[in-house]
């Protein structure tokens, strides 16, 4: 089912003298213009629209045609594969025009997020990233992963970074040490990417990620996660 803005045509009865009491009688008893259950025939309606149908504006497809993508829910394999496919197709279609990725997400799966991040670095077009609402966890790395000088935050956005989490309580004893090693390596990988994209020293990012580190748009800009804030663009 398409998500968008419906264009609903006007319609009117063929017979302007049709009375409400007659309609109630027809419904209860049926008549020659209806079926045996008293239902009115579709022919009794005349649509003003020439095509006699409802037209929908398929909003996502229109935005995709403008090379605008969205990350607005939990990051998982499904949303990652969707974005990877869109970035691949749009890059094949035109490898010189920028893509724009709008982000308002609480984050999600680390490996799915890294798949999106890696694809952003791999495709030929520059990726403009825009952060609005809450951009947390892996979503903040994807925000920072946009092309340098083309990463934007809305004035009241909140950006959060933290270390990757693991459900140690659900593990068997023998798997615990392996999971700890895997999470430690993953944290170092993510910290390295943050440091590369922000220009901050590895040790600073590593320390910031010890706890949930929430930042305003201005703080995120000072930290190097974004390059500019939306209200600043009004000056140009």
TrEMBL record:
Residues 11-46 have a biased composition (Acidic residues). The keyword Ion transport does not apply. It comes from the Eukaryota. It is an enzyme of class 3 (hydrolase). Keywords: Chloroplast, Hydrolase, Plastid, Protease, Serine protease. Signal peptide: none annotated. Residues 1-46 are annotated as: Disordered. The keyword NAD does not apply. It catalyses: Hydrolysis of proteins to small peptides in the presence of ATP and magnesium. alpha-casein is the usual test substrate. In the absence of ATP, only oligopeptides shorter than five residues are hydrolyzed (such as succinyl-Leu-Tyr-|-NHMec, and Leu-Tyr-Leu-|-Tyr-Trp, in which cleavage of the -Tyr-|-Leu- and -Tyr-|-Trp bonds also occurs). GO terms for molecular function: ATP-dependent peptidase activity; ATPase binding; serine-type endopeptidase activity. CDD domains: S14_ClpP_2 (cd07017). PANTHER family: ATP-DEPENDENT CLP PROTEASE PROTEOLYTIC SUBUNIT. Component of the chloroplastic Clp protease core complex. HAMAP family: ClpP. Belongs to the peptidase S14 family. This is ATP-dependent Clp protease proteolytic subunit. It comes from Terniopsis daoyinensis.
């Amino acid at each position: 089912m398409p998500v968008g803005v419906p264009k609903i045509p006007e319609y009117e009865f063929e017979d302007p003298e049709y009375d409400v009491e007659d309609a109630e009688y027809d419904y209860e008893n049926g008549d020659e213009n209806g079926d045996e259950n008293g239902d009115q025939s579709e022919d009794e309606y005349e649509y003003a629209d020439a095509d006699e149908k409802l037209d929908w504006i398929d909003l996502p497809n229109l935005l995709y045609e403008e090379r605008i993508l969205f990350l607005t829910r939990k990051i998982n394999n499904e949303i990652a594969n969707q974005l990877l496919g869109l970035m691949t197709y749009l890059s094949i279609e035109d490898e010189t025009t920028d893509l724009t990725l709008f982000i308002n997400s609480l984050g999600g799966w680390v490996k799915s997020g890294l798949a999106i991040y890696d694809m952003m670095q791999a495709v030929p077009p520059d990726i403009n990233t825009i952060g609005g609402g809450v951009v947390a966890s892996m979503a903040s790395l994807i925000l920072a992963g946009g092309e340098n000088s083309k990463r934007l935050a809305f004035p009241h956005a909140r950006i959060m970074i933290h270390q990757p989490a693991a459900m140690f309580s659900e593990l068997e004893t023998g798997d615990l040490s392996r999971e700890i090693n895997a999470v430690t390596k993953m944290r170092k990988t993510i910290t390295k990417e943050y440091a590369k994209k922000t220009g901050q020293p590895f040790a600073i990012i590593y320390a910031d990620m010890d706890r949930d580190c929430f930042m305003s748009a201005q703080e995120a800009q000072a930290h190097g996660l974004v390059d500019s804030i939306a209200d600043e663009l009004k000056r140009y």
